[in-house]
Amino acid sequence: MAGRKIVTEWFRMPAVWPIIGDALAQFDEPVTVWSGACGTGEEPYSAAILMEERGLRGRVTASDIDVPNLRTAARGWYAGPSIRRELADGRMTAEQLCSHFVPRKGGYVVRPGVRDRVSFSALHLGSDAPPECHVALLRNVWRHIEPAGQATLTAQLSKTLAPGGLLVLGGADLLTPTLEPTYPRGLLDHFTPSGFHSAVWRAVSR
Q1: Which phi and psi (to 5°) does residue 152 adopt?
Q2: pTM beyond 0.90, yes or no
């Protein structure tokens, strides 16, 4: 996956976040979210903010193969123009910015209460074992994994997700570049549609 283009946003695909929050609230706390291919950290911090706002005890484990991206994510600092774009697009509210960020050096740094929930580590999807979690966020990354690695990863996830846990995909994972329906290799063997959203899947009971 070296050299892949990183697209990362705060609260990406807004419709799935209430579903994630409701799912986490059904588990005994503490709960865990895994953000695979986390890029520069916007997704795992979004999950941590969600947990803060829901009053849920738990953590977010975040991983990526790109070590420089992980360093950026661990800093938790984001440039002002990028944050203002998120506000203009409606993915983040002014209230969230005020509650969870501190202005610093022309940008914003994530407050400690959110940062302390998130841990970052290097992980190679399709070979390294994923961490145990209640919700796995693996969005728009599957096409960068070889078919054999996809099959390995879906099988691994079906075992490391908590019973009743959810796998969240991205729109690009379910459509080819010519907009034909597609699925990650092994997904239909180990997961079933959740019924909540087309991108949200539940591991087959084991």
Answers
A1: -65, -45
A2: yes
